[in-house]
TrEMBL record:
One GO CC term, this protein: cytoskeleton
Gene: Tbcel
Record-given protein name: Leucine-rich repeat-containing protein 51
Originating species: Syrrhaptes paradoxus (Pallas's sandgrouse)
Domain of life: Eukaryota
Keyword Hydrolase part of the UniProt annotation: no
Length: 425
């Protein structure tokens, strides 16, 4: 159903959080009651607002009465205005400037690219620590203005904005710790390096779904660009096609968490091979694709890595192989053990004074085996008793009395004996 257009923030607030739609509930964290004052609105004593306001997809186009916003929202710390119709930064500024304790603001999927963000408007965002501008098509000029006016910004979300390039800001943003810039079209590493220049304190960089190509950067340069990077997400970076790109991640001095799913380079390996090869190549990481790397898993992976490359031509062996050989020594290839059950064995058939060596199939049942013995012992199957003697059995022969039981379940091996006796009536 289409949302009505032309509604103000204040109008939607009153509708959603009226006592009829949002009844007041006592108890910590359940809501905040704002009492009336002589200068206030007669609605003021009837609204009970939580500190987290969710007003997404409500058709909001403007702020409404700023005095009303200030009266009701003095305690609000988080505000979700995503999927509305806000296209004027001045209207957003009117809302935010009257929410003095706001720390989280979500403006995703608002057509804000239609207006220019002036610095005096951006100044009203000064206290915001987490800003979400996904699918807003915000220009880099807008982002730069925000960065200059938000001294405490820690987390910035710029997904789905159709970015093909990055425009460097004239000033660095020292406060930003997390940048979520997925689902754009940032293919060339020269664009990613600009993010390192703009955000030198970056702790977490989420670049999934960007078709990133090879990491063309020296190790020293990577260390300088991202000196504090602890976590990087490169999911579905279709252009990463060689192991050297993965090795480059070791250049980030504080990196300890990596996400690398959907990389073409890794598709030809099994899930187990993929994980072990990555762990072995990235000695500093403690978490891979969301899973903790245990100490035992790391050693297993590094030993696997040595054995994996030990038969490769010298020119194809990665440098990491030599590092690990120094650590563990040259390992012997693992013995190939065939764990498939034996299909047939040779046993001795004892009947009266006769002994005959016979090769028997282990997948047959006792009843089927008796049919094969009929011609050897000249007894009918109903008049035949079988006893199996394991060479190492301490308790003597075991009667094979269950007709439907498979021979392999007895653990019969080459050289074992089977005794046949007539049933005594």
């Amino acid at each position: 159903m289409d949302q009505p257009s032309g509604r103000s923030f204040m109008q939607v607030l009153c509708e959603k959080y009226s006592p009829e739609n949002f009844p007041y509930r006592r108890g910590p964290g359940m809501g905040v009651h704002v009492p009336a004052t002589p200068q206030g609105s007669p609605m003021k004593d009837r609204l009970n607002l939580p500190s987290v306001l969710v007003l997404n997809s409500c058709g909001i186009t403007c702020a409404g009465d700023e005095n009303e916003i200030a009266a009701f929202c003095a305690h609000v710390s988080e505000l979700d205005l995503s999927d509305n119709k806000l296209e004027d930064w001045h209207e957003v500024s009117k809302i935010v400037s009257n929410v003095p304790h706001l720390e989280f603001l979500n403006l995703s999927s608002n057509p804000l690219s239609l207006s220019v963000l002036e610095r005096r408007c951006a100044g009203s965002f000064a206290g915001v620590r987490k800003l979400v501008l996904n699918n807003s098509k915000a220009s880099w000029e807008t982002v730069h203005t925000i960065l200059q006016e938000l001294p405490d910004l820690e987390e910035l979300f710029l997904c789905l904005n159709d970015y093909e390039t990055v425009s460097c800001s004239p000033v660095c943003c020292q406060s930003l710790k997390l940048l979520h810039i997925t689902d754009n079209n940032l293919q060339d590493w020269t664009e990613i390096r600009k993010l390192g220049i703009m955000f030198p304190s970056l702790d977490t960089l989420i670049l999934a779904n960007n078709n990133l190509t090879t990491i063309e950067e020296s190790e020293d340069s990577l260390a300088r660009l991202f000196p504090n990077l602890r976590s990087i997400n490169l999911h579905k970076s279709a252009g990463l096609h060689c192991w050297e790109d993965i090795d480059k991640l070791n250049s980030f001095p504080k990196l300890e968490e990596v996400k690398l799913l959907g990389i073409p380079l890794l598709q030809s390996y099994t899930t187990e091979e993929r994980r072990k090869l990555l762990i072995a190549r990235l000695p500093s990481i403690v978490k891979l694709n969301g899973s903790i790397v245990a100490d035992g898993e790391r050693e297993d992976s590094e030993r696997f890595f040595i054995r994996y490359y030990m038969e490769f031509p010298e020119e194809e062996v990665p440098f990491r192989y030599h590092e690990l050989v120094t650590k563990y020594g040259k390992l012997e290839p693992l013995a190939v053990v065939d764990l498939r059950p034996q299909s047939s064995v040779k046993v001795e058939i004892h009947f009266q004074d006769k002994v005959e060596e016979m090769s028997i199939r282990l997948d047959q049942t006792v009843a089927e085996f008796k049919k094969h013995l009929k011609t050897v012992v000249q007894l009918s199957t109903s008049n035949m008793l079988l006893f199996y003697l394991d060479q190492e059995a301490p308790f003597g022969p075991e009667e094979m009395k269950y007709s439907s039981r498979a021979l392999h379940s007895y653990g019969i091996r080459d050289g074992d004996k089977i005794y046949v006796e007539p049933r005594i009536k």
